Amino acid sequence: MKNIKYYAYPSTVKEALAVLLNKKYKAMALAGGTLVAKTLPDTVETYLDLKNLPIKDIKLQAGNLVIGSGATFDEIDRSKLCRSWAGGVIAAAAAKCSSQLIRNMATIGGNIARPHSFNIFPVVLLGLDARVRLQTKKGAKLIDFQDLYTSGLGLRPGLDSLIMEIIIPAKTRKWKCEFIKLAKTDSSWESYITLFFSAEKKGKSVTQARVSVGALSPRPFRAPETERAMLAGDEAPAAAAVFAAELEAAKAGEYRSSAASSLFKRFLNSI
Ligand SMILES: Cc1cc2nc3c(=O)[nH]c(=O)nc-3n(C[C@H](O)[C@H](O)[C@H](O)COP(=O)(O)OP(=O)(O)OC[C@H]3O[C@@H](n4cnc5c(N)ncnc54)[C@H](O)[C@@H]3O)c2cc1C
To answer: Would the pTM of this model clear 0.90, i.e. be above it?
Structure first.
């Protein structure tokens, strides 16, 4: 923080990107500022404040739910669209962020820009097959959320590119979903584990299944064997045993594995 020399306050994405890409400024994007203030590299000399950019809308577009990267947790929690999508899981997840003060400031773009074990949205977006639209020096780039943290991306959002919006595909609108943050208290950022479960059913058959897990590592991961058990129509106790085994293999430890598989069983019994 002591090395900050300039504060840029652009009102267009073009201006913002120009500052970011001009090596002279050594700029870093700042959205809500809740995380960047704690993790600012010494090399950064310019704060690039994104507050004035038109990147906050939450809207329906071609049947998809599109969330602007500048939307705060509170705006997502209160959004009618987010409250109605996939049983309201996106709004419910936003409401689990530790405190109202943070929810008022923290944005979804800032939440996903860097991998972080305890951040809420990565595990939800992974489970909802979300896509992310970035603005780079070569123009707009649309990627699957699951590719955001791969080295193959070749970008460092916030330093050489901007996250513009998150696109939740139309197919997920009616999915039955649940997000769980298993933590000591509701106001903890840290959690033992975060879980996202979803299923789509046709008659008695599960036709879509997603199980994603956060808090065990900076990047959330899916549990493919457990999803296969759901699609195969395994009874809840058997599918939960598969989940517990996958978590053990991921070194979750006994408490997390057994608690998470019980929560998964409860989800299966509710759908
Ligand atoms: C006390 C406290 C409690 C917290 N509790 C929780 C919690 O319960 N759950 C949770 O998930 N998180 C929590 N957080 C973490 C943090 O607040 C969130 O991750 C938040 O979403 C960060 O968003 P921001 O807008 O404040 O990002 P900033 O701090 O402004 O930026 C964070 C990073 O994202 C980059 N960035 C921001 N916007 C963009 C963009 N549009 N494009 C490219 N890069 C961008 C920045 O360059 C920076 O690297 C907590 C933090 C604190 C300090």
So the answer is: yes
